[in-house]
Amino acid sequence: QLSIAIVGLPNVGKSTLFNALTKNDVLAANYPFATIEPNVGVVNLPDPRLTKLAAVFHSERILPATVSFVDIAGIVRGASEGEGLGNQFLANIREADAIAQVVRGFTDDDVVHVEGGVNPKNDLETINAELMLADLQTLERAIPRIEKEVKGKKTDPSVLEAAVAAKDALERGTLLSQSDIELGAIRELGLLTAKPYIYVFNVDEAVLTDAAAKASLEALVAPAHAVFLDAKIESELIDLDPEDAAELLASTGQDESGLDQLARIGFDTLGLQTYLTAGPKEARAWTIGKGWKAPQAAGVIHTDFEKGFIKAEVISFDDLIDAGSIVEARSRGKARLEGKDYVMRDGDVVEFRFNN
Ligand code: GDP
């Protein structure tokens, strides 16, 4: 289950966003430290292809891929030293596959800013500094141990090299995800800033259509991805039926909600994609990594599918929709029988053949 940790200073709109995310009514309170328990919300990855697929197969239900979000309690300056909520949030972030940092861009004099004023650059540097300090502590503890292990020939010297390089990068103020260090060797340390990063700018409605304002925020975080949304609008959207929601979105110059964008970009940032299966019971999307081969992809459905893999019948989504039915797609020669070395593509509609 893919999970993304939502972090950010208190009062930046994390709870508001998270409530919209999960359609829960978790209290969004206007004071710091309101979100103390980590909350998990699972959202569907929007995929309009599934509706079309279900129509072709007369499927009873649709099962999209999912992304789960973990709402982490507010981080404040000094968190890595036990300030505010202390270190309890670190373990929750460590377990996530990626980090989405919510940054306040909205102005509202009624909502207290914990650092005294709305300043996105300052805010994201505060959070990143805390995460980098936490990683530095981890490395400072780990390096003497790794040195001993290398001396005793229990660990490869490349592990020590990577750890030292990571420490140097952090001391220079670089997030590990933006360094070119080979981090695979020190994966077991669970370093926070090594995780893929997405920035979520919670901005006033006017900024959503202000390309220049967005570009300058984007420049603060490049090459990481930036998502722009208005958490208040997101929480209104969830209460509307699809037509009214589309109208509200259009009135703010968008064609996709911020949450949908977040799920989609999160998915992409992690190098994931989906393939599709369909039948009278369900039309379904399955999550796999980019570059995965057919047997590994089959294993996501069931380990037996991977072990007993024979072939996969693959039709691209567009070809299937053009043909209008699987029978017609086959007669047009669009159904390919692929073997164990086939590299899966996003949107492949697949039926696996396997031995029990
Ligand atoms: P958290 O501490 O980061 O979880 O922040 P909350 O979601 O609890 O939001 C803090 C306060 O800011 C609440 O009163 C929200 O209603 C308000 N708020 C959140 N997002 C927005 C926004 O986009 N615009 C405005 N004006 N207020 C917001």
UniProtKB/TrEMBL annotation:
One GO cellular component this record assigns the protein to is: cytoplasm
Q: Which one Pfam family would you cite for this protein?
A: YchF-GTPase_C
Query: Which SUPFAM superfamilies does this chain map to?
Result: P-loop containing nucleoside triphosphate hydrolases, TGS-like
Q: Which UniProt keywords apply?
A: ATP-binding, Coiled coil, Magnesium, Metal-binding, Nucleotide-binding
Q: Does the keyword Oxidoreductase apply?
A: no
InterPro entries in the cross-refs: ATPase_YchF/OLA1, Beta-grasp_dom_sf, G_OBG, GTP-bd, P-loop_NTPase, TGS, TGS-like, TGS-like_dom_sf
Provide the function of this protein. Answer: ATPase that binds to both the 70S ribosome and the 50S ribosomal subunit in a nucleotide-independent manner.
Residues forming the OBG-type G domain are 2-249
Domain of life from the UniProt record = Bacteria
Molecular function as annotated in GO: ATP binding; ATP hydrolysis activity; GTP binding; metal ion binding; ribosomal large subunit binding
What family does the Swiss-Prot or TrEMBL record give for this protein? Answer: Belongs to the TRAFAC class OBG-HflX-like GTPase superfamily. OBG GTPase family. YchF/OLA1 subfamily.
Q: Which residues form a coiled coil?
A: 129-156
Which residues of this UniProt protein bind ATP? 11-16
Q: What does this protein need as cofactor? A: Mg(2+)
Query: What is the organism field in this record?
Result: Microbacterium rhizomatis
* Keyword presence, Magnesium: yes
Q: Mind giving the lineage of the organism this protein is from? A: Bacteria, Bacillati, Actinomycetota, Actinomycetes, Micrococcales
List each copy of the TGS domain by range: 271-354
Q: Which NCBIfam families match?
A: redox-regulated ATPase YchF (TIGR00092)
- The name under which this protein is listed is Ribosome-binding ATPase YchF
What Gene3D superfamilies does the record point to? 3.10.20.30, P-loop containing nucleotide triphosphate hydrolases (3.40.50.300), TGS-like domain (1.10.150.300)
